[in-house]
Amino acid sequence: MRLLTLILTGLLLFTGCQKKEEVKSPPVTTTASQQIETQAYFSPRGGCTDAIVELINNSNKTIDVAIYSFTSKKIAKALIDAHNRGVKVRVIIDYGNGKSRYCVGPLLEEAGIEVRYKKGSGGGLMHHKYAIYDGKILSTGSFNWTGSAEKRNDENLVIIRNDPKLVEAFQKNFNKLWKLAGLTN
């Protein structure tokens, strides 16, 4: 068994994971027709940015984002387009990264999107990387919303659908961070 594990681990290390992988969770049914769905993406060049843009483009009511580093103009444009079609967009960016000359926070603010900058609650970094779409879909993982994350870094993005309890937990965290960031802006 140990040899099989070593062989499988070696194969994963040498073949890499770059394409979208759909992972179905064990059925956790909230209604007869709704089971939790998950998708995993891996960069570099694994489609993480495109997956986020698609989620933004399909949102109709709200998008809440807590992101450590945000320099992707492609994602920023999608958020601005969503805002312009009436979607309520709120973005929290790490305070230190918000000072970067490449940060798209000021671009979002110029478009009328609410942006707040926050240090970590324990004095460190606001290192989250998640977004909640229409209060129903969650994207999370190590993927920063940057060109380097898409093109050069090994990062991941997980999209979760039909898990209201998990989305609620992230929404509570976002609301707490939003309130705290408002005290310092």
Instruction: Name the CATH superfamily assignment.
Output: Endonuclease Chain A
Instruction: Return the structural class.
Output: alpha+beta
The 3D shape can be described as: globular
According to CATH, what is the class?
A: Alpha Beta
Question: N-to-C SSE series?
Answer: HEEHEHEHHEEEHEH
The radius of gyration computed from the alpha-carbon positions, rounded to a whole number of angstroms, is 17 Å
Low-confidence spans: 3-32
**Could you say what the CATH topology is called?**
Endonuclease, Chain A
Q: The biggest beta sheet, please?
A: 8 strands, mixed
Indicate the mean pLDDT: 86
Described by its quaternary structure, the protein is single chain
Proportion of strand residues? 25-35%
Identify the strand order in the major beta sheet. Answer: 1-2-8-7-6-3-4-5
What is the total number of structural domains? Answer: 1
Please give the alpha-carbon distance between the first and last residues: 55 Å
- Enumerate how many helices there are, as a single number: 7
Which descriptors would you attach to this protein?
alpha+beta, Endonuclease, Chain A, eight-stranded mixed beta sheet, 7 helices, 8 strands, disordered N terminus
What order do the helices and strands come in, and which of them pair?
Elements: H1 2-15, E1 21-31, E2 34-43, H2 48-57, E3 62-67, H3 73-84, E4 88-94, H4 95-98, H5 105-110, E5 114-118, E6 129-133, E7 137-140, H6 147-151, E8 155-161, H7 164-184
Parallel strand pairs: 3-4, 4-5
Antiparallel strand pairs: 1-2, 2-8, 3-6, 6-7, 7-8
Helix pairs in contact: 2-3
